[in-house]
Q: What sequence folds into this?
């Protein structure tokens, strides 16, 4: 079998039935801060701490936007078509070009939980990374207390691999147990 290289494209705009996945802009700071970045309930399952001010959110966005120059940077704002708001984020990290693998993570504002939006966004990104970029394995993990996130992964065809303990410090500086999932081409 011939060695096929990955075809990195960077963060292209993607569309689903209800969503637009696009690059973040500094002007997204209001939506990001209000829809999820300042919400303790959203942050309790993540590795980031809540943003105390909209200026803090703007600093994150400045950093993210500067990274778009790289064709190996994949970080999308999740825009809900119905109200045109940025309601979450989905990104690819830990890219291994040799093994053709990566991790994917997502965050969604609490008002948009249990609507199938995370599943819709994750399916879209998995499809893009497999079919456009050439990834063969896509990994994701979730805090074991965030059962809904595990269901999203399962609905997207990801298979449970294993549970890892004391893997990361969450936003409250507590070690968390995570369940790992994988989508294989």
A:
């Amino acid at each position: 079998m011939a060695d096929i290289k990955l075809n990195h494209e960077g963060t292209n705009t993607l569309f689903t039935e209800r969503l637009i996945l696009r690059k973040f802009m500094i002007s997204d700071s209001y939506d990001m801060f209000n829809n999820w970045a300042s919400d303790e309930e959203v942050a309790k399952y993540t590795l980031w701490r809540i943003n105390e001010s909209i200026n803090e959110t703007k600093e994150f966005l400045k950093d993210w936007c500067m990274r778009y120059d790289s064709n190996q940077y994949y970080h999308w704002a999740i825009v809900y078509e119905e109200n045109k708001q940025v309601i979450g984020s989905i990104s690819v990290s830990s890219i291994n070009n040799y093994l053709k693998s990566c991790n994917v993570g997502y965050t969604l504002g609490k008002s948009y939980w249990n609507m199938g939006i995370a599943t819709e966004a994750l399916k879209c990104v998995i499809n893009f990374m497999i079919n456009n970029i050439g990834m063969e394995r896509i990994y994701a993990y979730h805090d074991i207390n965030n059962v809904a996130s595990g269901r999203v992964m399962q609905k997207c065809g990801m298979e449970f691999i294993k549970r890892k303990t004391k893997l990361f410090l969450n936003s409250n500086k507590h070690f968390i147990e995570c369940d790992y999932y994988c989508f294989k081409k």
